[in-house]
Amino acid sequence: MPMPKLAALALAIATALGSAAADAADRSPTRTGKGTPPATAPTAMPAYHGPFAAPSPLDLNYPQFDKIQDSDFAPAFDAGMAEQLREIAAIADNPAPPTFQNTIVAMEKSGWLLDRASNVFFNLVATDKNPAREQIQRDYAPKFAAHRDAIMLNPKLFARVKALYDARDTLGLDAVDRRLLEKRYEDFVRAGAALTDAQKARIRAINTELSQLSTQFDQNVLAEVNDSAVVVDDRAQLKGLSEAQIAAAAEAARARGLDGKYLITLLNTTGQPVETQLEDRALRQRVHEASVARGSRGNQWDNTGVVAQVLKLRAERARLLGYPTTADYVLADETAANPATVNRMLGALAPKAVANARREGADLQAMIDAEQKAAGQPSFQLQPWDWAYYTEKVRKARYDFDENQLKPYFEMRSVLENGVFYAANKLYGLTFKERTDLPKYHPDTWTYDVFDADGKRLAIFIFDPYARPSKRGGAWMNTYVAQSALTGEKPVVANHLNVPKPPAGEPTLLTWDEVTTAFHEFGHALHGFFQDVRYPYFSMNVPRDFVEYPSQVNEMWADWPEVLAHYAKHYQTGAPMPKELLDKVIAASKFNQGFATTEYLQAAMLDQRLHQLPLEQIPAGKDVMAFEAKALKADGFDYPPVPPRYRTPYFSHIMGGYAAGYYAYIWSEVLDANTQQWIREHGGLTRANGDRLRQYVLAPGGQIEAGKLFPAFAGHEARIEPLLEKRGLDSQ
Predict the structure, then answer these.
(1) Where in 490-563 does DSSP place strands (E)?
(2) Which residues contact 475 (CB under 8 A, 6 or more apart)?
């Protein structure tokens, strides 16, 4: 998810993954790291006159992608950091007593040049990385960490903030101003501002090293995804794939100089989409084994040593800041509050999920046994590379449909414009108009003006759907321009998917998972559109275990009958999806949820295991994979056919903004399931429900404590039962 000003850089910088994640991505404490903080303004630099020197002249400050060159970033960063340090020095050295305006609001107004340049750069690093951008990322990760520390560990600045914080009851601040002051003070303390000089020096060194290691991890993951692509010599091995998929594999091979061969590229998850379709079991196994080996092969991109060092540095930093483990430090700033609360929830769900997965696996094994017997062949034991393939067979037998029957009804533009946008219109009154006059950072992006119910322009939306070697895996939303009353700016936000691009002239037909992902990510975009905050700090600055909540709620419209009927039309004939097929899709909504919940929970609990370790117990690089296996077994995940969604060496979430926070998806889903239940009980897809969601959930951003938003919306606290019912775990 996107971040507030001074927070955008903190995550992109301090973790140096370069994108939110949110994910991520994408998100938050403060944009601001090394050396002794300057007491006075730094030496003046030559004036900067590049494309980031002033707000973009395009609508809503939309970036001038056609004028921005890679060579623009370094001088913009240098000038932006120098400018912000001068601004911060002026605040810190101000002889006047500190006031909310001359200290806190003045900080909100600092760093705009750096903000403009870094927003564009880190988004481009995630969406269209190239060697020049990779080098800039490596060069500037430690500089950014040092810059942040130079601000957050500035003793004069902290003294002014602390003086205001101590006097907060006497300042006459309204609720929003008081919350900004309190959050700013907390950020300084959590950054180490209250430590001794020696401890601050160590914090600076840790932050610098972490920024370098996180950048290395990120770049290793992308290199491994590309290097681990599976080369296929014989077209016959690709039986089960569509002609368009085979053509795309041939084109991918040609692009690497492998004429006459086929290349199966990987996504950054353990399971790979082609495993659903490939009939050749040996090839499925090759794909799976290539996927799970990434980052632990002992080659130049092996991430196990990087992970071990990152964990050690994080644990040391947490201890310096007064926390026993990294998880204690991270969760203190989330709605969960502490590891024990997270452990209780995940621990309660895990046995139910695994039991469900075992039952699903038994059904798959029965299918395998019957199929092999009919063919006169000996049976074999269900393995991870068999799960997706036989799941589709069981799905077809049980519900009489498979993904290939659905895809002709899910043409991508129709899904977006007639589905995602249609639901937003019915719920919130939004309308959309495609723009072809604005520059693009990549030709495969689409751009839209977004108009509010009153006809006024609300935002600009960028849609970036296709996978490419230069793009990181997964799906996420990010922000180029964030709303705030202080700046008067309106949002420019983007959604990113990783849909395989078909050959030229072929339609883009989505899987059901890709359809729901499109609705999910647009939920993040809606959160960005509807922010109504006073200060940049609060824009999308919500706890990690809340940020997925609005996006998960938006998934409910993907199979809402009125919405589905509007977009699910055959791409050739225009015929609507038959009602009987729609009924089967809805009936199958809980199918395979044991697998889905188990693979997710394994990753979430592994994240907690790694980050709940005290410093002395962090494994060495050579022991990381053994620790992973032991941790999964200890948490009850002793069912080999279902591996974790991410293994440690390619678990990008926890090297970025989701460290000790991957549980957030299921935590947010509790709120989501309760909200979906409330909406269904109150009329469904109505403007009244949309207006209520907008007012109580989407608009406040970080201005109101996240824990108060759902109760304000629904009139009661969230309950676990709707989640159990949604995931099919209520009968376990």
Answers:
(1) 492-499
(2) 495, 496, 497, 498, 517, 520, 521
**Cα 167 → chain centroid:** 38
pLDDT of residue 39: 34
- Rounded-to-integer distance, Cα 539 and Cα 485, Å: 10
Integer Cα distance of 532 and 519 in angstroms = 22
Give CA–CA dist 665/168, Å, rounded: 35
Q: Are 631 and 720 found together in one domain?
A: no
Q: Is there a contact between 471 and 126 (Cβ–Cβ < 8 Å)?
A: yes
Q: What confidence score (pLDDT) does residue 19 get?
A: 30
The tokens for 35 are 């050396």
Residue 623 and residue 546 in one domain: no
Amino acid letter, 131: P
- The catalytic residues are 521
Question: Side chain identity at 502, as an amino acid letter?
Answer: P
**Strand pairing class (24-25; 21-22):** antiparallel
Q: Are 665 and 548 in contact (CB under 8 A)?
A: yes
User: Among the three residues 248, 267, 293, which one is the final residue of a domain in this structure?
Assistant: 293
| Per-residue pLDDT tens digits for 350-368 | 999 999 999 999 999 999 9
Give residue 732's pLDDT band: very low, low, confident or very high (50, 70, 90): low
170 and 153 within one domain: yes
The reply to whether 399 falls in a domain is no
Query: What's the pLDDT at 45?
Result: 62
Do 504 and 361 belong together in one domain? no
pLDDT digits (tens, 9 = 90+) for 546-577: 999 999 999 999 999 899 999 999 999 999 99
pLDDT score of 44: 56
pLDDT, mean of residues 83-111: 98
Same domain (yes/no): 135, 239: no
Task: State the residue range of the domain holding 138.
Answer: 8-220
- Give the chain's domain count: 4
Q: Is residue 382 part of a domain?
A: no
Residue 473 pLDDT grade (very low, low, confident, very high; cuts 50, 70, 90) = confident
Nearest to 557 by CA among 710, 678, 463, 424: 424
End-to-end CA distance of the chain: 34
Residues 136 and 30 grouped into a single domain? yes
